[in-house]
Design brief:
By secondary structure, this protein is α/β, with parallel strands linked by helices. It is built from 15 helices and 21 strands. The protein has two domains: 299 residues, NAD(P)-binding Rossmann-like Domain (Rossmann fold); 166 residues, Alpha-D-Glucose-1,6-Bisphosphate, Chain A, domain 4. The strands form five sheets. An eight-stranded antiparallel β-sheet has the order 14-15-21-20-19-18-17-16. A seven-stranded parallel β-sheet has the order 3-2-1-4-5-7-11, with helices on both faces.
């Protein structure tokens, strides 16, 4: 299909692009800034900027078999005032209205999948909520109701409209889980408020599969709770998270502190919905991750990324002889796609941003004309809160089989990354070896143990989720 997508650079949008491309769909991303979007999505999309003439949007919609709308400013991050509330509403309602108006001017798509949220039910407390439950009356509920009302107008154009009421999305490299990890890793994690509010969670892979089901299943029309079938209380969620991380999970964040920090926006954290995906299950959708324990185990285990002392058994290159490595990172992945599909994806530097967590703010500043020995790539990224320039040189390029890059400028004293690809029938075995030495000289081992090794495991763990989304 030709699919027109809003919100493509967001947490859900990036995962959705990967999943759609796996199925061979062509994706046009509606973005504010094409240069920034390319740094996040690589060559996987074509782009249309929101500032274009309205006629360009109409033509893009007319050329699309489906439209997926995931646009919307984050609810948390800034305190709510009248200006902020207006911005939150416009980022959802205006975009949805713009899409439907464009559908009415040209050939309409077959299906329109528009997101909403389980916040439409208000604070549900212990009440079990299905898609048949009544909407609430607070700001979030009214926002979702109005949001869906704009999307429903596409039905008058003969379009099948799917409204996904999304819960708390759990995934690597962003979203709610990423924000929770720091306090838990520091040993001060716990429930927010009373802990009795329900968390209507869903694993990111189940969510993007639900989008795909909405595209392909003609029985899907109307509202669907995009949540796992087993919502849990915040206290139970914190307990499961602490158990998986082997960290304490009993230190609560008092309700007054949440309100002091977030103001009126605190309702996002203090209210909950015991939402059950009744309609979603009725149309035959099957979840891969039905329990919070299974979801967290999948998202937080990085033991497949091994880090140990490099010793003296490393490649005899001039680079490594000059700057011997202290550690070696190794990981191997079996990808259920032939090497002819896998190698081009990883060998294109434009895709580096797509396989890097968005919080690192990866941006390419200079690309070579041809990938070959000696080619240089410049980019910027953030390590924690620190912006860093990084210059990479291709040390060895064997098209279709292997490439090696080294750091010429950047945070490490030594960085040598080997990417090897081995055909295995219709599958590909991809092996990474990174020989590296942390900065700060003799105390680098302590820094590696406390910070660097864990961060590298998270980065390569995120990349494993990208692989699964993109190639299955």
């Amino acid at each position: 299909m030709n699919i027109f997508l809003t919100g493509a650079t967001g947490f859900i949008g990036r995962a959705l692009v990967l999943r759609l491309r796996r199925d061979g769909h062509q994706v046009t991303a509606f973005v504010r800034n094409e240069k920034r979007a390319r740094s996040l999505l690589g060559h996987e999309c074509t782009f249309l900027e929101t500032s274009v003439d309205p006629s360009a949007l109409k033509k893009a919609i007319a050329a699309s078999d489906a439209v997926i709308n995931t646009a919307g400013e984050p609810l948390l991050g800034k305190r709510w005032d009248e200006k902020r509330l207006d911005s939150i509403r416009k980022s959802r309602l205006d975009v949805t209205r713009q899409l439907v108006d464009a559908m009415a001017q040209e050939t309409a798509p077959k299906v329109f999948i528009s997101t909403s949220a389980v916040g439409i039910y208000g604070d549900g407390q212990d009440t079990i909520l299905t898609e048949e439950s009544e909407a609430g009356t607070d700001f979030l509920a009214t926002l979702c109701r109005d949001w869906e009302s704009e999307a429903i107008k596409a039905r008058d154009l003969g379009v099948r409209v799917v409204r996904l009421r999304i819960g708390v999305v759990l995934g690597r490299g962003g979203g709610a889980l990423d924000q929770m990890l720091l306090p838990f890793n520091l040993g001060v994690g716990g429930p927010i408020g009373t802990g009795k509010q329900y968390v209507p969670w869903i694993h990111i892979e189940d969510l993007v599969d639900l989008f795909v089901a909405g595209l392909n299943n003609p029985a899907m029309s109307g509202a669907f709770n995009a949540t796992a079938p087993t919502p849990v209380t915040f206290k139970a969620f914190a307990t499961a998270l602490g158990k998986q991380l082997k960290r304490p999970s009993f230190i609560p964040v008092p309700e007054f502190a949440v309100k002091l920090l977030f103001g009126d926006a605190s309702i996002v954290l203090l209210q909950g919905q015991r939402a059950i995906p009744a309609h979603t299950q009725k149309v035959g959708f099957t979840y891969r991750f039905e329990t919070i324990e299974a979801a967290l185990a999948d998202l937080l285990q990085n033991d497949f990324v091994k880090i140990e002392d490099a010793g003296s058994d490393y490649p005899q290159s001039e680079y490594l002889q000059k700057t011997p490595p202290a550690f070696v990172l190794q990981t191997s992945t079996v990808i259920d796609r032939p090497i002819e599909e896998v190698f081009p994806f990883f060998s294109r530097p434009e895709n580096l941003g797509l396989i890097t967590p968005s919080a690192m703010q990866f941006r390419i500043t200079s690309l070579p004309d041809v990938m070959e020995d000696g080619a240089l790539i410049d980019y910027t990224l953030k390590v924690g809160l620190v912006p860093i320039k990084w210059r990479t040189r291709i040390e060895d390029w064997e098209d279709g089989r292997k490439f090696v890059d080294s750091q010429l400028e950047g945070p490490y004293s030594c960085w040598w990354h080997e990417h090897s690809f081995t055909p295995d029938g219709n599958r590909t075995i991809m092996t990474d070896r990174v020989f590296y030495t942390p900065p700060v000289g003799p105390i680098g081992r302590a820094v590696n143990s406390l910070f660097i090794a864990g961060q590298l495991q998270q980065v390569f763990g995120y990349r494993s989720s990208v692989l699964r989304l993109r190639f299955g």
